[in-house]
Amino acid sequence: MVSWNTSSQDPLRAYPAAQQPDWPDRSALDAVTRELETLPPLVFADECDLLKDRLAAVARGEAFLLQGGDCAETFDAVRTDTTRDKLSTLLQMAVVLTYAGSVPVVKVGRLAGQYAKPRSKATETRDGRVLPVYRGDAVNGFDFTQASRVPDPTRLLTMYQASVTTLNLVRAFSAGRNANLRQIHNLNRDFVSGSPSGHRYESIADEIDRALRFMHATGSGPEAADAEEFFVSHEGLLLDYETALTRVDSSSGLPYATSGHLLWIGERTRDLSGAHVEYFSRINNPVAVKLGPAATSDSVLRLIDRLDPRREPGRLTLIVRMGAGKVREMLPPLVEKVTASGAQVAWVCDPMHGNTVEAPSGHKTRRFDDVLDEIRGFFDVHHSLGSHPGGIHVEFTGNHVTECVGGGHEVLFEDLASRYESVCDPRLNRSQSLDLAFLVSEFLGP
Ligand code: PEP
Ligand code: MN
After folding, report:
1. Alpha helices, DSSP H only, in 308-353?
2. 34 is in an annotated binding site
3. Which residues are noted in the entry as Mn(2+)-binding (predicted)?
4. Residue 179's pLDDT is what?
5. Residue 426 CA: which ligand is closest?
6. CB contact at 8 A, 275 and 306
7. Which of 158, 264, 290, 316 is deepest in the core (most CB within 10 A)?
8. Which mutation among 268, 319, 403, 428 tests ligand 1's pocket best, with the greatest number of atoms within 8 A of CB?
9. pLDDT tens across 168-212, in order?
10. Which pLDDT does position 4 carry in this prediction?
11. What is the predicted ipTM?
12. What's the rounded Cα separation, in Å, for the pair 44 and 246?
């Protein structure tokens, strides 16, 4: 693979790029991007093509996407146990959803590259002091000091290394014993027996048990399912990083982002005339776009024209994040217009970003019931229009944090301070994530 722009000028220069850091030293940034251009790809074009095939099945209504991970990964959390617990939680959720929906679940982590954050304000004020806002470990430090908040381009190299390490763990765990279906199911059984809402989940856990015994008796597995296909994704926010890791695939001659299998454009950077849409239109990976309540059907149709001009199933995923109170009203016109245009996109529900509220303690939080209700609304809309509710995109961790309120092991507002560890948005903890999978499983299937 060769770099995509070694012989040409920066093809994005003519387009305004929103949400880019104010790097203090351009020559230091150039040195970093030149180094990134020499480094090996994190993912390969054929893996990206495989994910595109899997997402084409989602777009056709034959598969379901489960995408999730931290709002913002941090360099400190690049640890074996943290990564393993995130992966096992996602695989546990996937088993429940696969059984309930009777279709393959495509598993995509929000990890191994989710280090840059778009922000609604450029500064943060605390006790009268104003500093540049934290933009993710890829850019600056979380500590509230002037020194830590200055953007430092060498962090892009640390981001690359952190992504390499995380991806190595993910590749090992998803190929090994941790990904064994029986093992994952046993973890779900432990969850069900310890959960205050366990009685509600028991029948599906029993059914999965019987299905596994049946597979075993027929000699068709579950040992056959010892490895899990797992992909990685992040918001493609920092164009200096993404373009430096864009390579032309030697067999197809096409450029691919090699920082992750799937990249998405965030709600704040989907401007049709901006640099993000232009960059995404040039790469050959599967791509996604977040759509908030301000998205009009006209802008969505134009995004489809720019990002999926060939109407290639699997190329484009639309991640809707309207809020529980708005999804039933705002989603139907979008789905109707997109369907009428003939485009075959995958529709996915992000039930997190439209449901952020401030707790009495001042913590940013989300109510578990709002998260579930937005997913319910998303399913209702698709069922009433005859389209496919293609998946969910969640912010979660495998740890026992207290960041979102509610769930079977209920987290109360008063609990938020005890283990609030996110440096950005509140995540579902491990048991809330599993609650969600069992409850969403009730919307799936016949
Ligand atoms: C996010 O996914 O963390 C995020 C910032 O989402 P959005 O672009 O939808 O606001
Ligand atoms: Mn977030």
Report:
1. 327-341
2. no
3. 71, 353, 395, 425
4. 82
5. 2
6. no
7. 264
8. 268
9. 999 999 998 778 888 999 999 999 999 999 999 999 999 999 999
10. 64
11. 0.99
12. 11
